[in-house]
Amino acid sequence: MKIVVDMLGGDLGLDATVKGLSSFLSAHPDVEIIAVGPQNELSILGSKVTVINATQTMKMDAHAMEILHDKESSMAIAVNTLVKENADAIVSAGGTGAYLTLASLRVKKLDGVLRPALISPIPTLKENHKTLLLDLGANNENSVDELISFINMSKIYYQSVYFQEPIFALLSNGSEENKGSPLIQETYQKIKELKIPNFKGNIEGSDILKGDVDIIVTDGFTGNIALKAMEGTGAVAKELLKAAFTKSFKNKLAYLLVKKDLKNKLSMLSSKPLGGAMFIGMKKIVVKAHGNSDAVAFKNALETAYQCVKNNLIDKISQGVSHE
Amino acid sequence: MKIVVDMLGGDLGLDATVKGLSSFLSAHPDVEIIAVGPQNELSILGSKVTVINATQTMKMDAHAMEILHDKESSMAIAVNTLVKENADAIVSAGGTGAYLTLASLRVKKLDGVLRPALISPIPTLKENHKTLLLDLGANNENSVDELISFINMSKIYYQSVYFQEPIFALLSNGSEENKGSPLIQETYQKIKELKIPNFKGNIEGSDILKGDVDIIVTDGFTGNIALKAMEGTGAVAKELLKAAFTKSFKNKLAYLLVKKDLKNKLSMLSSKPLGGAMFIGMKKIVVKAHGNSDAVAFKNALETAYQCVKNNLIDKISQGVSHE
């Protein structure tokens, strides 16, 4: 197994990616790694890791043409290396837009896939249970057939990684069958018509984190807004807590007493343990670590890539879509 | 000023609505109230309040036909009373779907309004600043012209209630001009074409609570999912906090120390101080209090209705849309 790693993409820089990669390699010494980043600083990774030199980061606000002509950034070099070396997977914490653009153009989608989608596990109130949410923003709009294809791909993903038959739902503005945008209403009817098993119906935005289903499917516009609305609220909750706990000496004392359990419980509102999002439907495993990934988050993103390769996800999706 | 109040709609029953209404009346003894609820239990409101008897609550899962034929529920009687008595406003904490259906059919929309929308103030990280978010789910889909009309109506609402010129934005899956669903992209261009002032561009789901803008406009499907995703995350945050603070004696002690400031800060994640949502674009002020409104929340919903009537919101919107 060969994984290409963009060492420069994340907000926290080399420190997070080097530590994350080292930790991943301790667990999986058999994996061949091509690390793309500043050669002089990556020698600490040891002789088993192949280093390709790159000293620039992809601009966060790069336009499509800049992204396409970029040959210097670690992300562009990493994506090109993935293709040239015929590696199995790529992991980057760089900007989603540029990453999706590069992956779409260089890696290409699997034959039979209508549109790739960005998929990520979301933590839920049920312990040790994660729900897959897609599309998180690879597309600005989607058709009924594309949503059906998202259902099929995500079911294969769930089976491959969690080894269980998933229950899925559509995200809607009401749980009843007749609720939803025209797209969701039509998709609901198409699912019934196709008799796709384990369909739980519609669920609302307030139910995403409850863990009642294993997969939640929506279009890329809606999914992006739902995910970011949740992330934003989680961040606000943390900010409010901080304000409360730092307000007085008494409150600071209270924080010391409850700190450990609080951090432990509230880690659910953090995206770090989740192993990043995946661009599903491509010819290679393309994993997007969160921009602010620390070492643990980056290691988990590498782990996601590893699991998907090990479980032959690409082959399974390729076979799955060819039956459609 | 005459306000019709559905006393039975909320989850917390008469106790919350009676206390909320009494508290509202202490502040505004001049307002004429028609309270719809069980006559024998509402006599405590005093002789100044007109009571219309109703002992049934609108079924939460009522179908459209059941809603239309319902003549017994407090909500149906309240909506009919609003029209028959030519009152200025109605407040109910009953189910949104039934309420919207009844209001649409009996109260009707203002001439020139394309579609009514559900609008609510959202708390933000900026102290004492609220952002209006619409449409929260009155519609399953919207056109460009409808979104433009939402902008116009919400600007009038903001000016009438907060006495300031609002800055508005579109909710999108990226802040750049070229991001968004086709609807959002087209609306963006239409806003530029019409040169609507104080347009801040697109904002993302993670920015809703930041308070950088005064109005956020989106279609009813997306707005409903964004609002509920935020509500759901807020509820999860509270559940996780509770789990942390009740885990041990030490943690319970910490809670006692920080309790007051914590409740105070986290009240932002509660919808109760906000005064409910409004069905904007109708011929009357139609206010929807949150289903789980306590006395304070219900009083605030009554206050919203009062402010809108006092500031002649209906006339202003009516004049505003006739210029479109």
The chain-level mean pLDDT of chain A equals 92
The Cα radius of gyration of chain A reads: 20 Å
Question: Could you name the ranges of chain A where pLDDT drops below 50 across 5 or more consecutive residues?
Answer: none
Question: What is the strand arrangement across the widest sheet of chain A?
Answer: 3-2-1-4-11-10-5-6-9-7-8
Q: From the helix content, strand content and strand pairing of chain A, which structural class follows?
A: alpha/beta
Biggest protein-protein interface? A-B, 65 and 65 residues
According to DSSP, the number of beta strands of chain A is 11
The tally of helices of chain A reads 11
Binned, the helix content of chain A reads 40-55%
Measured between the Cα atoms of the first and last residue of chain A, the distance is: 29 Å
Elements of chain A, N to C (H/E): EHEHEHHEHEEHEHEEHHEEHH
